[in-house]
């Protein structure tokens, strides 16, 4: 058999391998030699063979066959073999393997060994891979070693006790008395381990936390000694005396002083001393100062001390190290709500961090800048944020735009400023804004009636300049459709007016409709705006009709449906087009359809103190005839509310077919009363009282003639104190020979319980002739709910 090569020689040969295959061949030969050495028994070469196997393991090759050899070497009386055996156990074994249980007895024996170096091997192994069973068995031995005379053993026993507490928390009480006495040690290693052990105990047991709060003065004295001590080469790091121990003590003080005034008062002077005397030019000093800041912010510290902590973080923002700037802004983000004024002093430095090259630093600076926006600095901060929006990375644009919108909504000094800010964002990053931005801006514009002329002029200029930003184009199309007449007048005090012709406006909207950059939603806005302009301009109605008709065969179904409906409005319902395309009323954010997904808002009742425009899209007569219905109650003092009937898709249903579905059920019919009989048209009414103040009225129309009745519509008016809501009718065509009916439901709410009156206007077309009649219902008896009526 060839003699085994030494470890250094094996490493040299493996490193000289030119290919991975050559390396695997060398490893296989060496592993075969190692197995042979293990099988030969005690020949003095086992420790060298295991050392080579550990190097093979470090290279990622299998080394599990050396586990039992580790157990044998640990049991060896030779220190050199024990050292390699324990090292192998820490690398090749873990707590989940059965072989780890075989070394428990060896570790227990070595913990009582006369040599402190053998004891340290056993302590390191137990702290590294000790299982819960091993920790339970060996915990008394560790507690005994905490009282050993050698500081070398105490240090390792302390760290081993930390591992035991993490594995078996119920053993924490065993180490509490010893941990308290370790604070009197002078050795920094033992003291460091003691602070770590006490921190672990306090985090896991509230009772222990109360007990160790009595040690705060002692910890303060230790910390003061470190801060004021003279230069010590053994513990000095970049001019800071043992910064590792200082950081550990500060963390422990933070835990002990949390929500405790007595402990916090005892450490306030110390924290002020550390914050003022520690040099922050070195990384070690910055680490100590950072832990000091965290401790100040977490305990019940004085206000002056908190301001000092914020100033330290402000100095960190000027550091050349990006990591320090990042953690500084992270800490400021946590305290900006509680110490807003103190953080505001460093607003300029924080804004400068928006120009940093590192994206993570920019993100933190953006979050902190948005948190610093207030009513006082809204203009200056928004200017900086808008500049940042124009140059920020693409991954930050959406967050920046959302933050600007939220800040502008909360702190905007005026509506004009608010509109200008949002338009600036849409111009810069319109593709990165949220979906609800468009309806929110439209709602804002509708409420600012004095700015309609200014807004439509500004949006028109933005539209003809760039149509790539879809959100901006949608808002611009909506405003042009609503306020195009103001644009044509060319009179605007807030902005330099521009002379715009009807052809210019239509050319701009046609450009949007035909652009490949326009989304289907944007084309829908543009088509609707074009249609609305048909009532706001005079010379180009035929051109609008031509534009709309083109999209009647559009491949996009939404756009096609709009075009078909608008064409029908031109052809069949031209008399009501002006009323249908009136300006939209002021929209409320809490109104239905404008909740942006938030259904918690209250729905406001309509203001009945002011006259409101009638939604003529629901009427069958020109808007000028709306007041005629109200005038019919000449001798009535109580004013009426007019409620037009909503439109619906014409459908004809048969009540008989629906009743047939109920089979043999016995249904109590609701009484019906005829209120209108003329020209073959019969109108009946059903009344159902829902509550003390609410009544549901169903109007049923049937046709006994030989021809279908078309364009059938109903209008209703009630006294002003009564709230009326008309549901959509089941259709507008009544089949001949009584083969079908058209029904419409009316909801009445009578909170004042006044005498109910209703006036109904019936309009329909029969054989090409238009008919219109009015019926007045004078009373609604509360008992039988059967009305009395008189035709007018």
TrEMBL record:
Main location group: membrane
In what ranges is there compositional bias, type Basic and acidic residues?
A: 601-613
Gene Ontology CC, one term = AP-1 adaptor complex
Cell location: Cytoplasmic vesicle membrane; Endomembrane system; Golgi apparatus
Tree of life domain: Eukaryota
GO BP term (any one): vesicle-mediated transport
Membrane topology of this protein:
Peripheral membrane protein
SUPFAM superfamilies, per the entry: ARM repeat (SSF48371), Clathrin adaptor appendage domain (SSF49348)
Which stretches does the entry tag as region Disordered? 586-615
Q: Which UniProt keywords apply?
A: Cytoplasmic vesicle, Golgi apparatus, Membrane, Protein transport, Transport
- Gene3D superfamilies listed in its UniProt record: 2.60.40.1230, Leucine-rich Repeat Variant
Provide the protein name.
AP-1 complex subunit gamma
- Taxonomic lineage from the root: Eukaryota, Metazoa, Chordata, Craniata, Vertebrata
